[in-house]
Request: fold
Amino acid sequence: MEKSACRHRLNAISDALYAIGGKWRLQIIVAMLEGTNRFNELQRSIDGISSKVLASELKDLELNGFIRRLVIDGPPVIVQYELTGYSHSLTSVLDALYEWGAQHKVEVKKGFASSQPVLNNE
Amino acid sequence: MEKSACRHRLNAISDALYAIGGKWRLQIIVAMLEGTNRFNELQRSIDGISSKVLASELKDLELNGFIRRLVIDGPPVIVQYELTGYSHSLTSVLDALYEWGAQHKVEVKKGFASSQPVLNNE
Reply:
C-alpha cells in the first residue's frame, strides 16, 4: 500500500477507535441495549462512572449520532436517552472486534508459542 | 441477547479495543508496515512520541504477540522489531474499523439529519 493511502486508512481507523474507544462508551451503549435509559439509572448500572464523566460521554455519544437525548415535559420533567438507528451501523465493527477479542484471549493464554515473524514487505 | 452473554461479548470487545486502542499502537504497527524497524527510526517517524512511551508501547505490542524484538549481535549490537504472523489476524478488525470510520466521517459532516431513534427492545 502506498504511504498516503496507508495514512488515509489509519486516519479512518483512528476516527472509528476514537468514536467507540475509551473506558466507558461501549459500556454505556450496552447498558442502553439492556433497557437502561435515564441518567441516574445509567450511572447506577455502570460501575465506577462519575456523573461528570457520564454526562460528558453521553454528550459525545450524542454528537457521534449513536444516541439522542429526549426531554419529556412534566411535571416531573423526564430526561432520557435512546439509541438511534445509526448506532446499528456499528454492528459489523463490534462483530469483528468480538470475534478477534475472543480469539486473542485464547492466544494470550497460549503465550503465542506458534507466532511467526513476517517480513515488512509481505 | 441475555445479560450474561452480552457482558461476555462486551469483555471480548474491550479486550480487542485494549490491545489495539490508544493513541500510538496502530501508528506503530503502520510505521512497521512501512518498513521502519529500529527504535530510533520509529521514534523519528511517529510525531510526538517520547522514547519512554514508545518503549512501553513496544513492550505491550510484544506481549500481545503483534511484534517481536530481535537483538542482532554486533558490534554494534542492533535491536530491531518485526511484525509477527499473528499481527495479520487483525486484518478483519482493521478492515471493519476502516470501512465504518470512513463512512462515519461522512455522517458526522452531514450532521446525522436522517438518524432515527430505535427502541431498546428491537
Observations:
- Chain B touches chain A through 62 residues (CB under 8 Å).
- Helices of chain B lie at 3-20, 25-33, 39-45, 51-63, 91-110.
